[in-house]
Design goal:
The protein is of the alpha+beta class. It contains three helices and six strands, in the order H-H-E-E-E-E-E-H-E. The protein is globular, with a radius of gyration of 15 Å.
Length: about 160
């Protein structure tokens, strides 16, 4: 069930979720989100603070099934997911995963989003999407779910 929030309230909630991660992960995620927002004007950002990760999906509507991409924060890395990634042309073999639908790229830095090969993958994913993101509509953040139980958000190296 989506929580209806004013934009600034949803932004503040997302910032609180992100603040539980290490500064390094937050820096990568914030920069990646800034780049995604610039690349996908009008996208609806669906936020899921799940058991394993904080996930921000990007799509044309609030329906999770229509999301095209997501950025997921884990304690040790940030990942860009292509939610219909199977079959995308990937001559540089950047996409990881072996499931029936989703493929991903671990973002070692947010600038990876600017690599021509990643931009091409994103373009193909957008073109394949049934519903298009309306770049003229105002994008917004929607808090979709918050799991009551969650794994620790910061990586603690074992001695």
């Amino acid at each position: 069930m989506a929580m209806i929030m004013k934009e600034s309230s949803a932004e503040k909630q997302l910032a609180k979720f992100m603040a539980r991660y290490s500064p390094e992960i937050v820096a990568i995620a914030e920069d990646a989100l800034k780049r995604m927002r610039k690349r996908l004007p009008g996208a609806i950002e669906m936020v899921y603070d799940n058991y394993n990760a904080l996930v921000i999906g990007f799509g044309p509507t609030e329906r999770a099934s229509e999301a095209i991409f997501s950025i997921a924060l884990y304690p040790r890395w940030v990942t860009l997911f292509f939610l219909e990634g199977v079959g995308l042309p990937d001559p540089e073999k950047l996409l990881m995963g072996s499931g029936k639908q989703v493929r991903s790229i671990v973002l070692k830095s947010p600038s990876m989003l600017d690599l021509p090969a990643v931009q091409t993958l994103m373009k193909h994913a957008l073109n394949r999407s049934e519903k298009k993101i309306d770049s003229k509509s105002p994008g917004r953040i929607v808090i979709k779910s918050i799991s009551p139980k969650q794994r620790p958000r910061r990586y603690i190296a074992k001695a």
